[in-house]
Amino acid sequence: MKIKIDKIVLVEGRYDKIKLDSILDATVIAVNGFGLFKDEEKKATIRALAEKCGAIILCDSDGGGTVIRSHLNSILPKECRINLYIPEIAGKERRKASPSKEGKLGVEGMDAEFLRNLFLPFASDAPLGSRSDISSADLFADGFSGGENSSGKRAALAKALGLPSSISAKLLVDAINILGGREIYEEKKNELRISP
């Protein structure tokens, strides 16, 4: 049974869309990778839809995906967007003869059950739980930003959370709050035994 999502879902390419169409009952839009940068009509459409019903952004965990995600974040109002992330996993998609430039699986290469679990909290019939979110101040206080080796500590925390190691501090806060807020943050921080 497909998961019903009322928000639009933005992915990089058509194979990502095909993968998500198989598990979601949602409007999944392929932004056509870097083609989005010059496609003013598509950007205007995405912005209008996101302002009406919200948007979930899911890009690959490689350099290209990071750039495309950043562009989408710049054109969509913060209150209208949710960023979801896939882990960095070495490999290649079945349809490709060779791995991508960075040798990582993209959205299309992710396990369907992983993707189902990733989207389940955003199902239109999912109960809204109460949780305590973290802020950028928490990352700073705990040494994940603004301090000695903070980028290395942040990369370790991101990896422990199954997120891209290159994620910015700002996006890391968003991702942690989507994944479970303070509870998951404290759990992973304690596992890493990182002190400020």
Describe the structure.
The protein is an alpha/beta fold and 196 residues long. The chain has 2 domains: 3-122, Dna Topoisomerase Vi A Subunit, Chain: A, domain 2 (3-Layer(aba) Sandwich); 136-192, no CATH class. Helix content is 42%, strand content 12%. It is built from 8 helices and 4 strands; from the N terminus they run βαβαβαβααααα. It starts with a strand and ends with a helix.
Q: What's the helix count? A: 8
Look at the structure and give the mean pLDDT.
86
Number of strands: 4
CATH topology of the largest domain: Dna Topoisomerase Vi A Subunit, Chain: A, domain 2
Q: Which structural class should the secondary elements be placed in?
A: alpha/beta
Strand order of the largest sheet: 2-1-3-4
- Corresponding CATH architecture of the largest domain: 3-Layer(aba) Sandwich
Helix content: 40-55%
Distance between the termini: 45 Å
Uncertain spans? none
Secondary structure layout plus pairing:
Blueprint: E1 3-11, H1 14-21, E2 24-30, H2 40-53, E3 55-58, H3 63-75, E4 81-84, H4 112-119, H5 136-141, H6 150-160, H7 169-179, H8 182-192
Parallel strand pairs: 1-2, 1-3, 3-4
Nutshell version of this structure?
This protein has 196 residues and is of the alpha/beta class. Helices cover 42% and strands 12% of the residues.
Attribute tags:
single chain; 196 residues; alpha/beta; Dna Topoisomerase Vi A Subunit, Chain: A, domain 2; 2 domains; 4-stranded parallel β-sheet; 8 helices; 4 strands
